[in-house]
Design brief:
The protein is mainly beta. The chain has 9 helices and 29 strands. The protein has an 18-stranded antiparallel beta barrel. A two-stranded antiparallel sheet has the order 1-3. The longest helix is centred in the first third of the chain and has 18 residues, at 2-19. The chain starts with a helix and ends with a helix.
Length: 578
């Protein structure tokens, strides 16, 4: 009888707890969002550590970063932004109930892109397709009490589908303009999903997503995990506290093969058949005195025989220990089944308004006695930032430099028949339904935006106010050698002898970079802006300039392109809901 009574009391307590309305702070925000940028700038302005570099980040994670700030020491402008953020990070859908809420946001958009020249490939698009506006996005989000958040976006009439880099004038509604019934029908079949679900609280969360992600505080990109693809399919477990964070991320990519001329995504790869290309990644963030962060990041690009190997879920399993035992590059050889990556990141909020970030990367790190056939390669990225707050708006200026060696991201393992196997390079992609630029689908770096064999110097300015406007501008000078996408990297990295990926066993003979006089030199300058006069209506525009010398490593060949992007988006629910 006593047991039944205790059970009844427990049930009543549980029901009562679930019935109490609570603030849901599990909505996710991208690194580019005004909410994340505002919290980031406010933390630096106040002289403390910024929010987690693992994005998309939840409102709870951003609120946790705000808790480091000493409110009484803030200026009037900083206090106003702090109060506004504390309120806006609580997620309140349009249709909200005690335990559930739905936030429909069907968005109609118009997007026009034009350029003055036609580049050799899409990697010279300053405005990437994933940054452009869909013609129609049937989007809605939802919440579960204070612990759950979900999001589904059905993207149709997408410029990612209907546009190609060789068009001088392009609209996101190209197929509608043809007036053909088959083209209109095709836009439905070619729609893609941006979706995911997350459960969490004020110290951890678990998510399964198909959306954009990245890790790091870089502005021109990040060395380990970058935001270069339209979306990535990943599972993530993240814990966070004042002194220590742990993150485990498992990202899945489509398999690829080399057809003798180019990288091609396997057409039937959107199945659950093995093998699977996966990127498990462990991240340990140590935080000191609310000023300094030291992060250790370890992972590997792998081709596994099963969709899920439970060993990979061990949070303390360092995958490097299973590889690099033999001097062989043929897949199937013991200990030669992955491309290991190890990174050390350092961040220091030196003083109010000023912060230093450094990333050090080792690709295919080797310990004594391990294989030296595939060369170890290094990368470094560092930036200096200064952030200020004015009238609830953030302003962040930055200066950044990066260098990646030629062999970074390019593992160049071969199959038993000596054919090239690209599934161990950090060049990845997805074959998503009807999307794709021809047979290749979407292919880009999983890591740094400019890939290997690059020297990058850049400076920029970001500003904005939540719900009102955003503004970003940057200019970058890039020196790029022959290794990497758009630079015939398979031939450059593998050499003429297909059986020897580097055409030399003497690793020391591999050059640190193409001589500067023979490399491609380019300047990329961009200005992007958006303005929201009323909630639900946003105008956006961007202008970009590309000037290259020794274009695509052709000595004496110059290339100039001016690119312009203009668009608007309209969400009728958001506009008329209030």
């Amino acid at each position: 009888m006593k047991l039944k009574k205790n059970t009844l009391i427990a049930i009543l307590i549980l029901v009562t707890a679930l019935s109490l309305p609570a603030a849901n702070m599990q909505k996710t925000y991208s690194r580019q969002s005004a909410e994340y940028q505002s919290v980031y700038a406010l933390c630096i302005s106040a002289g403390v550590l910024p929010p987690t570099s693992v994005t998309p980040a939840t409102g709870a994670e951003l609120a946790h970063a705000l808790s480091r700030i000493e409110y009484t020491q803030l200026s009037a402008s900083e206090k106003a932004l702090y109060d506004s953020l504390r309120e806006s990070l609580e997620y309140h859908p349009v249709l909200e109930y005690d335990l559930f809420g739905i936030d429909p946001a069907p968005t109609i958009g118009l997007d026009m892109f034009t350029q003055t020249a036609v580049p050799e490939d899409e990697y010279d698009l300053i405005f990437k397709r994933q940054d452009r506006q869909e013609g129609l996005n049937l989007d809605f989000s939802f919440k579960f009490a204070d612990v759950g958040y979900g999001h589904v976006g059905w993207l149709m009439l997408s410029p990612m589908i209907t546009s190609y880099y060789d068009k001088k004038v392009d609209f996101n509604i190209n197929k509608l303009l043809t007036g053909k019934a088959e083209d209109i029908t095709a836009t439905i079949h070619e729609g893609t999903l941006d979706a995911g679900i997350l459960f969490g609280n004020d110290w951890m969360n678990f998510s399964i997503m198909s959306t954009r992600q990245e890790q790091g505080y870089g502005h021109t990109g990040n060395l380990v995990l970058g935001d270069n693809l339209t979306r990535q399919q990943y599972m993530r477990f993240h814990t966070f506290s004042r002194w220590f964070d742990y993150t485990y991320t498992m990202t899945r990519y489509s398999k690829m093969h080399y057809d003798g001329e180019a990288l091609v995504l396997c057409g039937q790869d959107e199945t659950f058949e093995s093998p699977q290309q996966v990127f498990p990644l462990h991240r340990f963030d140590f935080k000191i005195a609310d000023k300094v962060s030291i992060s250790l990041v370890e992972g590997a690009m792998m081709l596994v025989d099963t969709p899920l190997d439970v060993r990979l879920l061990n949070p303390f399993l360092f995958i490097h220990g299973f590889n690099n035992y033999e001097d062989s590059t043929q897949i199937g050889s013991r200990g030669d089944e992955a491309n290991n990556v190890l990174a050390l990141e350092f961040g220091w909020t030196v003083a109010p308004h000023h912060r230093l970030n450094i990333q050090l990367l080792s690709d295919q790190i080797q310990l004594p006695g391990e294989s030296s056939y595939i060369p170890m390669a290094l990368g470094v990225l560092m930036n200096w930032e200064t952030s200020w707050i004015a009238d609830k708006a953030y302003i962040t200026g930055w200066l950044e430099a990066a260098y990646t060696m030629p062999a970074v991201y390019l593992n160049n393992k071969t199959n038993s028949d000596h054919s090239y196997n690209p599934n161990y390079d950090f060049i990845t992609g997805y074959q998503l339904w009807g999307y794709g630029n021809g047979k290749n689908g979407e292919i880009d770096y999983a890591s740094y935006k400019y890939g290997p064999d690059a020297i990058v110097l850049a400076l920029g300015l970001d500003a904005g106010q939540i719900g009102r406007f955003t503004l970003s501008t940057q200019i970058a000078y890039i020196i790029h050698g022959s290794y990497g996408l758009g630079y015939d990297y398979t031939k450059a990295a593998r050499g003429e002898d297909a059986e020897n990926p580097y055409n030399q066993k003497d690793v020391s003979a591999l050059p640190l970079s193409v001589p500067v006089s023979d490399a491609e030199h380019r300047i990329e300058a961009t200005l992007n802006a958006s303005y929201t006069p009323v909630e639900g209506l946003t105008f956006n525009a961007g202008i970009g300039v590309l000037q290259a010398w020794n274009y695509k490593l052709e000595k004496g060949i110059d290339f100039f392109d001016l690119q312009l992007l203009i668009g608007l988006s309209f969400d009728p629910v958001r506009m008329f809901a209030k």
